[in-house]
Each structure stands twice: as structure tokens, then as C-alpha cells.
Amino acid sequence: MKHKIHAIILTLLCITTLFGCQKNNPSSQNTALTGEPPADNSIENTALPIYNAQNEEIGSIETYTPPLLVNNGILYAKGLEEHWISNYDAVEKLEYRLYNTATKEEHILGTIDDLSYDASYETTTVGDHLYMSVSTGSKSSENRKQKIYDVDLKNYGMSPIIEVESGLPYNSFTIADNTLYLAELLENGATDIIKYDLTERNETPVVHAYDEQSFFTKDSIRHISADGDHIYMIRLHKEDGDNISPDSLSPFDVPPAMDGTGATTNSDTDRHSLYMDTYDLDLKPLKTTNIGEICNLYEQDELSNENERRQWVSDFFVRDAYMVYHNFSSTTFLGTADDDKINRLMETDNDFNCVTDTARRGDDLFLRADCEYSENRPEKPQRNRFYLADPKTGAIKQAEFYADETKYVFRSASRNGNGKILLTMGFTPKLSDDEPLPDRLYLLDMNDLKFTPYSET
User: Tell me: the pLDDT tens digits for 7-29?
Assistant: First the structure.
């Protein structure tokens, strides 16, 4: 376990469990091998048939990005072109669409011409509007912008409302009391909080200039979330003068240090702590909880635990009786964190994920997205399993779902406010002679799943 996650930048570029790498088309692979951009600017989309719980095909979409289920359909983007700024820096022209699953109509929402990163995991809805984060321009900070888009799901349109100059693609945002809060990480390691009032729309996007002189906290905010009453931030804090002793480390054990942008070096053994800060809706601090223990995985050494604390966070929220934490590496957590004491509600691993839900509700749905099919079912008892958790009590129920072809395993899922689930399933053989199977989408109703009390077996 000692050397397993030293390539932080790679884990940032690929969300391996929920969405996979954003760029998996042949032209990108060709560039990685030859160092030359492809001869044309084509993009490869994937045709995904849609099935119901009875394994009947009910529609299809052709998409370049992971599909997301919203109340009135499936949101996705179709790739149109790929433009190369340099041999190792490409931007894409994507056309965002909404597919109505009832009428099978497609509505074009808008086009982004120079997209470099699509943070599909960072979305939320308020009424008929969905807000999402994308980055445009070059990957270098001087030519990059993070943009928060307002997607009008009722009138079928989209436009940017905030543009953050030099903004990192991984800057997190949340919405509370009709205000959008975006945590902008600066190169000096500090974090600024950008506020945008959703009740006062501007005809043009608000441009936020990069400024290291003005910041909210000197530490790095890894993720920001909100419920109806509070705002929560995951904060990474460097401990003064507290280093991991290098005496027992080989040259291969030296951890990759992170500056404010997530860049790495090869000689830093600084120690960090991870906190969950609780604020009221006016950003008045109420409570700080040390949650670093959730990153102490298995029986790893302190170096590996330190590396886990430094990771960016793909999913985090607090809901009454529990909190959920999932970073871009190997740490997942479902449980409570009170008075610096960590209690797990159930054992989780990197195959355990929160089902993407743009609108929080009275319960939360999770899935175990095993990426490997096994004929020996007793040894893989949690394959294709859903978990339904009650945030009021912490009680958990479970259910399973299988396609007519039982080799299909869960890839990812999203849920809307109408009791529907959009499930991506596929099969990629591991160390066998089996042929891969094309991915499918399944549109399920919560009533299609038969939940029973959670059991470890």
C-alpha cells in the first residue's frame, strides 16, 4: 500500500469511479503515444441505449459526457470538435442537450466552444435551473477560466453567470438561501469565497479577477457544501513545524507536496490536518471538527494517510445523522464526525459512491459500483447493490439490481426529484477471455427496487 497513490495529478484528471476519464477517445490516446496532435478535429461520441427495469429498450442518446438525470429528462453533451492549443493541450466544442425520456424529444441547450474540463460531479438545481462548473481555455492558469453555468431546464437555454480568471477546475461551489458560494483556491494556498446572489441576475457574467491580497481563509478549502441551515467546508491545514520524519523513508517514499494549485514536488514531508468547518448562512463560524481520521485507511503508514488528506474532494455533504466524504483517491466515508470522534455507519471503499442527486431529499441513495464481474457470487456479495440511508436515524437499507445479461455491473447512477434513477451499466473483462459488452443506461423507478434492512453479508 505504501506507494499506491503518489500521482495526485493523474487522480485529479480522471474520476475513476463515478465518471471515468473525461477524455477517452482514440485521438487523445494517439497524442499521448506520439506527442503529435491528430490530423483531424473529430470527437468520438458513444451511443447509449436506454432500458427500463424489464430490460425493454425505451430510447437512446449519443453522448460524449456522463449523462445526468434531472426532473424533466437526461442532461448530456455531444462532442462536436476538438481543437489543439499545443501537442498536449486540447479544448473541445460540446453541445449540451436535454433528452425528454417521456416524449423522446431532444432539446439543444447551448454550446461551449473551448471546454477543457467538465466537472460533472459539481452540479446542483434550484427549481428549473441547474448550475454546473466547467473550465475553458488552456490548462495554464494565465489562459484559463472557471465558469459557473446557469442551465434553464424549462426554457432550454444556458449561459455563464460567473467567470473566475485563472480559476482552478476543481474549485467547489454550493448554493444556500438563493446565494451561490464558490471557494476559489489561490496559488499561495489561501482560499477566497465568491458570493453571487441568484435573485439578481446580470445580463453578462460577473468576472472575478484573480487577487491573492484578498482571501477568506489562509488554508485550502477542498470542498464546500450546504444544507438548509448551515454551510460546511472541508479545510486542509498545514501544521507548523510538524513534519513526517524522513529518517525511515526511502527516496521513493517522499510524499508529493501540494501548493495552492495542487502542483507537486518531490521533497516535502509537511504534515497536514483535515477539518470540517461549520458556518451559518452569513458565514459566521460555528464549529470546527478534525476529520483527518477518515483518511487513515486500512493499516497504511502515515505517509499514505497524509497523501489521502491532501486529495481533492469529489463529493461531500452533511445530512442530519451523518456526513458523506469521497475524495479523488481512495477515501470514502459514510458516518458521523462529532467532537473529533469518527464513527462509520458501514464499511466503505472506492467502489462505494453516492448516487449523483442534484436536489437533496429525505433520504440518500448510494451504490457499490464494482468494476469487475465474478462468476462466484458468494465471493462478491455486494456487486450491483444499492444502499438507501435515512439521514434522520442513520438506518440503512439495501437492494440489488441485475440486467438480463448478468455480467453487467454498475458504473454510475444519478437520481432526480421524481423518484427515478438513471443507471449506467457495463462489462469489461478482467484477466479473462470474455468479450467486453457495450454500456447501457437503465431508467428505473425507486419502486422497482426491493429494499431490505442492511446486512454486512
Answer: 222 233 333 333 333 333 323 33
Least-confidence region, from 12-26, 123-137, 171-185, 348-362: 12-26
131 and 124 in contact (C-beta within 8 Å)? yes
pLDDT in the model for residue 244: 66
Query: Among all chains, which residue has been given the C-alpha cell 520524519?
Result: 245
Cβ atoms of 128 and 153 closer than 8 Å: yes
Residue from 412, 422, 415, 416 nearest 352 by CA: 412
Per-residue pLDDT reduced to its tens digit, 103-112: 999 999 999 9
Q: Are the C-beta atoms of 6 and 255 separated by less than 8 Å?
A: yes
Between CA 213 and CA 320 the distance in angstroms is 36
The confidence score (pLDDT) of residue 40 equals: 66
SS3 428: coil
Half-sphere CA count of 442, side-chain side, radius 13 A: 25
Q: Where are the alpha helices (DSSP H) in 296-417?
A: 302-310
Three cell numbers written together for 163: 467567470
Longest Cα–Cα distance of the chain, Å, equals 66
Neighbour tally for 344: CB within 10 Å: 12
pTM (2 decimals)? Answer: 0.86
Set of cell numbers at residue 52: 427500463
Kind of pairing between the strands at 322-327 and 437-445: unpaired
